[in-house]
Structure formats: C-alpha cells, structure tokens
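tool_call predict_complex ligand=NAP
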Amino acid sequence: MTDTSETPANETSTTSGSRMRTVLFQSFGDPSVLAVAEVAVPAPQPGQITIDVEYAGVNFAEVMFRRGQFPVDLPHFPGLEAVGTVRAVGDGVAGFETGDRVAALTLGGGGNAEVVAAGAEHAVRLDGELAGLDGTLAAGALCNVTTALGVLTSAGHLAPGETVVVLAAAGGVGTAAAQLARSLGAARVIGVTSSPAKAEYARGYGYDSVVSYEEIEHEVAERTGGAGADLVLDSVGGAFRSSVTGLLAAFGRHVVFGNAAAEDVTFEGNHPWYTNSSLAGYNLGGVAGRAPALLRAHLERALSEVAKGHVRVDVRVLPLKDVAHAHELLETRASTGKYVLDVRS
Ligand SMILES: NC(=O)c1ccc[n+]([C@@H]2O[C@H](COP(=O)([O-])OP(=O)(O)OC[C@H]3O[C@@H](n4cnc5c(N)ncnc54)[C@H](OP(=O)(O)O)[C@@H]3O)[C@@H](O)[C@H]2O)c1
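tool_result ok
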C-alpha cells in the first residue's frame, strides 16, 4: 500500500493524528493508476459533515476523470457518493448528529474512502421511510437514480404516453431510467445496448424491447409507426450521437448527459430549426450549483423510490482494493448494473 501524507482534494484541514484508507490516482491513465493509500482523515469544513463510509459507488464519471477526459487536480480522490454514519458535524450545519446513518453525494470527490467530507445540503438521513434502505442500494442509487430522474424530467420533460429511447440500457443510469420512465407514464421504453447478453439483462428492467445500436432506427420506426421517439437519453456520444436526430419524432428531445465514447460531434446552431428537435443537457454538478433545491428533491425522491421498491438497483459489491476492477469493467463495456465498494473490507 502506498503511504502518502496527501489530503483529499475537497479538504483543507484534517483531524490530527487519524489516518484512513482512500482510493487516489497521481497521474492520468488506465485503471492501474488507481491506488489505495493512507492519508489523513478530513475534518468537516463549515457547512459540511464527515461520514464514516460503509459503501461507496463507482461511476462512469470517475473513469473519465481517471483517464484525463476532464480536468481534475492531481492527486485526485475519486468517489461521488457514499453511505455510512456521520462522524463529525461542521459549523453551521443543522439536522445532522454524530452517528446518524446517511447517504450523500460527494460531488467534490473523495467518496471511495473510509471517511469523506460532504456538503450537508447533499446528505440525506436514512431514517423514517428510508430507515430500512439497504446501504449498498442507497450507494447504488445516489448518482444514478438521481441522474435518471433529472434527465427524464427536468431535461427531457417526459410526458405520459411518450416513447423514450435509452442508450447504454443495461448500465447503472440506464436500468434506473427505464423503470422511472415507465412509472412517469411513458407508453414505450426502448433500450439500446452493445451485446445480446446485455440486452437480455436489460430486459428485466422495464423496457418494451432492447436492441443493438445498429437495430435501433428500425426498432423505433416499427414501434412508433414511423413517428419516431419523443425522448432519447444519450450518455454515449461518439459517432452515434449524430444519428440520434434521425430517431426523433417532430419536436422530440435529445438529452445529452455523458460521453462514454470519449469522442464528440458538432451540431450547427440551425440544427434544432432544420430538424424540429431540441438538444438538451443534464449535469449533476451543474444542477448542484445552480438548482440545489431541485437536486435535493430529486435525491430524496430517488432514495425513496428505491426504498419503496419502485426502482430496482442491481448492485455488485466489491472490496475497496478492487476499485480498479470496477473501472475496468465499466470502461470495457463489460459491466451491467452498478458497482459499489465495501469500504470496510
Ligand atoms: N451528466 C451527469 O450528471 C451524469 C451523471 C451520472 C452519469 N452520467 C453518465 O451516464 C452514463 C452512465 O453512467 P453509469 O455510471 O451508469 O455507467 P454505465 O452506463 O453503467 O456504463 C457506461 C456504459 O456506456 C456505454 N458505452 C458506449 N460507448 C462506450 C465506450 N466507447 N466505452 C465504454 N462504454 C461505452 C456502455 O454500454 P453499452 O455497451 O450498452 O453501449 C457502458 O456500459 C455515463 O456516460 C456517465 O458519464 C452523467
């Protein structure tokens, strides 16, 4: 194990004397740059709580950070979500006490660690109707189900009776989006994924059909009588992004919220005019900054939907030391559902 005196990037002070294990990377690259290291335990800044983490989700965004697709400072401490108990409460924080069981978005990173600092506005106490929510499911729901909800509603304006197409249908966000689209009243939910095995897996999550990227144009035409889809959820990017407009009904919405292919396309300003379509976007960090109350409402609703069993999250739990394996599975398109790290093992 590497030993370092570095402090997680979102921290400026530490609890003296205490050390903890965390995932970090010191350079950009393949999953081998990920290390589990010992660092100082963070102390909460004003407005923050610190959490003794039990479970921490792994997200595709962290793959992008690790390979340098987004500018993050080095060393970087990955982890955008965590579940555990409140360790300490910072100045100005109301509503949390040491020992409270919580689930939190840790949008500054650092969630893949034994202790993380989180803004209290992004933490939810797992009590009341959330008291029985399994920690692994809560960790699996934080980013993915919240994002799926935001993409479908705030960005996609899904209306009852509409047809929705979900790219990367078998993934963490995809499986949540299909179930939520269904419960929000979509008439048809069509998934797209890259292999027959993933299609078979995704069919268990509320899709009417799941097809390959090559088959989707025909599938949408067939299922909508040639009218097209009202909403396409696109986290994939790459060359496929250019073809999405061809899937849309008149006034259909193309929601862009990721770029797994790490390759973008260019749309002209006249594109929506010429095609009777809308290009919309969703970014969790951006919502946190510009519409924090909306993000909190979506976060609470996401956890509630999972606690009630309305949205099923398929979680595979790995020990903290296997974080590179989780990245590898996500990056090579070998993953289905959600990977969660058991930080204590
Ligand atoms: N904007 C936001 O705030 C926000 C928040 C959360 C997640 N996201 C985005 O939503 C997407 C889903 O996140 P997730 O964590 O649930 O991941 P995921 O969907 O479980 O995994 C990513 C999936 O992207 C697809 N993909 C397409 N082209 C790929 C390529 N060249 N390399 C690797 N994967 C490729 C793969 O599915 P197929 O093999 O089936 O194509 C892969 O399984 C990600 O793109 C993520 O960045 C955005």
